[in-house]
Design a protein that fits this description.
Length: about 290
């Protein structure tokens, strides 16, 4: 494949505001110093044909019927919150939630949708029966899955049961003023259930593509790294991290964060492809 080879701009002008607790938002489409191109995982990709937007245009949320709201869907409380293995990690007390486009899975015989933030202080899966306006939601949610056919296996990793607290509050978006858009959104943080878990994402933050989570897995989950093509030639993507400058704006670079591509085989035997932060992982063995 002959894809464009612009250099990744250090200053990412993405305005991808992160909402919710320790979750990954879809954000608005911003820009870097490189141009988008059509790739394997979508028609709007940057740095790799596997680093793409969930939707070709607009945000990455499941849209409501009101073009002026924040795409929050009203919820019935009391339903289970599940991780990517289908394990119940909490009971939902939220009265509304936003959902990432194209992400549905079946657990316990019921179709679920992927919520950006849940009562577990993480992203997670909620049953369709918990969504008010379910019929309209099902008409809008769509289906998008990251692909990996033909990519060679590399090392086996597992989600860490710890995280580097020095990284947690650094921003992944230049000059961010959002509550999130931080490195911690991609690390195995302790959730409301007292356990650590981390996001599997459809793309890498800092490119204005959204940095959207598509699944969520507990510490110890095996992650099989794949040899993914990138413009730089490395099987990974590094993004700059930002801390506050002398006037309190996140414009001073402080290190980088590496993202690698691969897959998780969930306890349901479902294969889920996507990106994970290298800092969320440790070398392991026994990947399926």
């Amino acid at each position: 494949m002959n894809f464009k080879n612009p250099v990744f701009g250090v200053v990412a002008l993405a305005l991808s505001a992160c909402g919710g607790e320790a979750s990954v938002d879809d954000g608005a489409v911003g820009s870097t110093e490189q141009a988008a191109f059509s790739g394997v995982n979508g028609t709007v990709c940057e740095e790799s044909p596997y680093n793409c937007k969930l939707r070709p245009s607009g945000g990455n949320r499941v849209l409501t019927n009101d073009p002026d709201d924040d795409d929050s869907w009203a919820l019935y409380t009391g339903g289970p919150v599940r991780d990517g293995n289908g394990t119940v990690v909490g009971i939902s007390t939220r009265t509304s939630a936003t959902f990432n486009h194209g992400q549905t899975r079946t657990f316990a015989g019921e179709l679920h949708a992927f919520a950006v933030s849940t009562s577990n202080s993480s992203a997670g899966w909620l049953p369709m029966s918990a969504i008010k306006g379910r019929t309209s939601f099902e008409d809008k949610v769509g289906h998008v899955s990251a692909l990996s056919s033909g990519l060679s296996k590399m090392a086996c990793y597992a989600v860490r049961n710890w995280h580097d607290t020095n990284l947690e509050f650094k921003k992944v978006v230049y000059d961010s003023d959002a509550t999130h858009e931080r490195a911690g959104d991609y690390l195995p943080l302790v959730r409301a259930n007292g356990l650590r878990s981390a996001n599997l994402t459809f793309n890498v933050p800092g490119f204005g593509l959204g940095g959207v989570a598509v699944d969520h897995f507990p510490a110890g989950t095996k992650f099989q790294r794949l040899d993914v093509p990138t413009n730089s030639g490395a099987p990974s993507i590094d993004i700059p991290l930002w801390v506050q400058d002398s006037v309190g704006r996140y414009r001073q670079q402080s290190g980088t964060m590496k993202f690698i591509y691969g897959y998780v085989i969930a306890a349901t035997s479902t294969r889920r492809n996507g990106w994970m932060a290298y800092d969320a992982l440790e070398v392991s063995s026994g990947c399926p």
